Amino acid sequence: MTGESLPPAAQIADAPWWRSAVIYQIWPQSFADADGDGTGDLPGITARLGYLAGLGVGAIWLSSFYRSPRADAGYNVADYRQIDPAFGTLEDLDDLLTGARRLGLRVMIDLVPNHTSDQHTWFRQALASQPGSAERARYLFLDGKGDDGSVIPNNWISDFGGPAWTRLTNADGTTDQWYLHSFAPQQPDLNWQNPEVREEFSSILRFWLDRGVDGFRVDVAHGLVKEEGLPDWDGVSGVPDSLRGTDVAHGVFKNFGQMWDQDGVHEIYRNWRKVLDSYPGDRAMVAEAWVPDHDRLARYIRSDEFHHAFNFDFLATYWNAESLRDVITRSLRAAAAVGAPATWVLSNHDVVRHASRLGLPSPGGSPPGISAADPQPDEDLGLRRARAATMLILALPGSAYLWQGEELGLPEHTTLDNTLRQDPIFFRTNGAEAGRDGCRIPLPWQSATPAFGFSETGRTWLPQPPSYRQYTADVQLRDPSSTLQMYRAALGLRRQRQLGLGSLTWLDLGQDVVAFVNSYITVVVNLGSSTLTLPGGQVLMASLPGAVTGSRLAPDTAVWLAS
Ligand code: NOJ
Predict the structure, then answer these.
(1) In a 10 Å sphere around its CB, with 0-12 CB exposed, 13-18 middle and 19+ buried, how is residue 429 labelled?
(2) Is 183 touching ligand 1 by the criterion CB < 6 Å?
(3) Are 309 and 297 in contact (CB under 8 A)?
(4) What share of the chain is helix, strand, coil (3-state, %, to 5)?
(5) Is residue 81 helix, strand or coil?
(6) Residue 115 contacts residue 181 (beta carbons within 8 Å)
(7) pTM (two decimals)
(8) Cα 168 from Cα 179, distance rounded (Å)
């Protein structure tokens, strides 16, 4: 690999914003609470936009804020044209968009097209209608097998555990058809072969584009179309060679087979792209597609489809230099082959925060949550590696996604009381998987106020662990060596040197090292257990104070050098 140059992400001169943007993901429930009810809201976000501009990100992505009974946070949408009252109103969103625009921040929003809520008007109408009706044809209803229809239509499993089908029972106690839900039973899958569904979502896209959003993060983008005839999963289809023989059902990637990544999804996105392109201002969309094969994933970012696809294979790569070099090379090659930017991400609302993941005692992928009964991460080691990992992703060509609170070095809440958990994953696996609540804890802003400044009343919808006191934004803003200041410095330098638009040339500094040059900056990450001798060059910044002593780089740290 040494000396190999990978293709540049783009020609610098006329590159649109999304080719190199750093996009900050906000979980509205947990970012900041303006009205004191313990749940974050849109006015809370608007009030903190200055913090985000000061951090140096170029855009924010708001996770689902739609009206929802919240059986899976906001990912069971009851009305795609309304904001959930817990978060505010459409006018609050207008204020947020105006404030963001004033600060030069773009705003992307979530779109959840694979399934609605079971409280959505369409699903209620379907329940009140007969099998074979137009109302049922918006969803995936089937008769059961067997003489009395009591046998489940196929063997598909829900992403949250348990079967992916639920049988209806009528008010009079008689049984009815089954419906498909790739996630919880409260999230019935839509039938994307139905033109009415397609038309409705084009209209929803336009509704929000007219309102001024800069784009969409598309939930479950690899799931909308299912294999025709809804056949049983054979246990093999869709599993890439690299994962054959592993326990695929429990890995980060568990979406294989006849439900996922069907070729038919692409036509939908080509149509959406036309809608976006008919608006001024470089609107963009990013695919949440859990597709481990980079060439298959790249199909989503062809020039007439998405602008980005999350790089979950990178996220799932453990702290190992060879694996990281390999996944980076594969990512850059596959994206360049279709003329798209690669993307980089370490954390989001569905995985254990990387500051905890990288501090787990035994190497492995991403566990499905951490509870008090599980082995606990080493918080210092995790943070040390997390800071180095951030300096790695922010130096790579392409675009990067940050998850709220990672700039504070926040660990996962790993000892959350099980009685407080809300994630359907915890319940559908009967507690075998702790789930995602631990990464969604309300943010700590101020050390000396109730709820660490999240909410003036001190209320929080989930409790913050006491250790969050040492991670508050106000303390970190005053400390030049804090994680927050490291993020601010790295984002500033990244922008100044246009690292996102650069290209990567690998350096060989040893087996346990990830090292490359991008835009006259030499990036060195030491994943080994001993210090390493650096190549020449002035230190521009390091992941930790004391990471560089003379010309030696400490283990689990990273440095950017002028080359
Ligand atoms: C992916 C989202 O990121 C996750 O949070 C949600 O539970 C599922 N899709 C279902 O919408």
Answers:
(1) middle
(2) yes
(3) yes
(4) 30, 20, 50
(5) strand
(6) yes
(7) 0.96
(8) 8
Active-site residue identified among 41, 110, 118, 219: 219
Task: Please choose from 182, 350, 401, 403 the residue to mutate so as to test ligand 1's pocket, defined by most ligand atoms within 8 A of CB.
Answer: 350
Q: With 90 as the cut, is the pLDDT of residue 8 above it?
A: no
Tokens of residue 133, six digits: 């009706």
In tens, the pLDDT along 254-268 reads 666 778 999 999 999
Q: How far is the CA of 36 from the centre of ligand 1 (A)?
A: 27
What residue has token string 């990978």?
6
Which numbered atom of ligand 1 lies nearest the CA of 348? Answer: 3
Mean residue pLDDT of the chain comes to 94
Spatial CA neighbour of 406 closest among 379, 387, 385, 434? 387
Distance 123 CA to ligand 1 centre (A): 19
What confidence category does residue 292 fall into, taking pLDDT thresholds of 50, 70 and 90? confident
Q: Is the CB of 219 under 6 A from ligand 1?
A: yes
pLDDT tens per residue across span 366-417: 788 999 999 999 999 999 999 999 999 999 999 999 999 999 999 999 999 9
291 CA from centroid of ligand 1 (Å):
15
Strands (E), 355-409: 399-403
pLDDT of residue 12: 56
